[in-house]
Design brief:
Length: about 240
């Protein structure tokens, strides 16, 4: 029997057909959940539906994949930032479909990081697909370690950038889909146990299942699952101190 609550530090509950029901399910299951958003326009509804919840938090996002069309919403993002400690989904996407806007994405992400540094104490869920080096460069330049915390969501970078991200005090959230790949297994074998979190990235994953993610982490790390559950809960506590 599982004794500790699950942690889903990156999912998109506002993309479910019934947003409110999705939040209430997580709340009733006592799953510590960070529900990220893609546009600041979605913030008021996310804020309102999560107010007073014990387990579900909403994060204020401006997703790199929508920056090409929505860069001007950065002013709205800044307006809402004082209302929350949680920021995401933000970051960079250098994959073929979004490469054309990469320079604009960098400007927006740098602005987001600077604004977070100014306010302080923010926790960011960061997307870094095919842009890990740029993400780390911008974080290093704009968000001092004592001004905010970065959780790299679905990290797929190589060894060198992984080592660098670890040295920069980043956390990593792992989902079951990525843990089924060779790269995902390699990343989770290297990241210190005290920097590991779980996520589902639902509804975008085939296996939006935290217990499955924990099982895969435990297998790679050769640890009992109970130890992994405890570590993740401890890590969440430390991150949010
Ligand atoms: Mn996502």
């Amino acid at each position: 029997m599982r004794k500790v609550s699950l942690v889903d530090f990156h999912c998109h509950l506002d993309l479910y057909p019934d947003h409110e029901t999705a939040i209430n399910r997580r709340e009733n299951a006592k799953t510590y959940t960070l529900s990220v958003t893609t546009t600041p326009q979605a913030w008021p509804q996310n804020r309102n539906l999560t107010t007073g919840k014990c387990y579900v938090r909403a994060a204020l996002g401006l997703h790199p994949q929508v920056v090409a069309e929505r860069a001007s919403e950065i002013s709205l993002w800044k307006e809402y930032l004082p209302e929350t400690r949680y920021v995401g989904e933000v970051g960079l996407d250098g994959s073929p479909d979004h490469k054309d806007s990469l320079e604009l994405q960098k400007d927006i992400f740098a602005d987001i990081l600077k604004t977070c540094a100014k306010e302080g104490n923010k926790v960011l869920s960061v997307h870094s697909v095919r842009a890990v080096k740029d993400v780390l460069d911008l974080v290093e330049a704009n968000l001092p370690v004592d001004r905010g915390s970065v959780v790299l969501h679905w990290f797929t970078g190589g060894k060198k950038q992984l080592q660098r991200a670890i040295e920069m005090n980043c956390y990593f959230s792992f989902n079951a889909d990525m843990l089924e790949t060779a790269r995902g297994k390699e990343v989770v074998s290297v990241v210190p146990l005290e920097r590991i979190l779980t996520e589902t990235d639902a509804p975008f994953t085939k296996l939006p299942d935290i217990e499955c993610a924990v099982e895969l982490i435990a297998r790679v790390r050769k640890l009992p699952e109970t130890e992994v559950y405890e570590a993740i809960k401890e890590n969440l506590k430390t991150l949010l101190l």
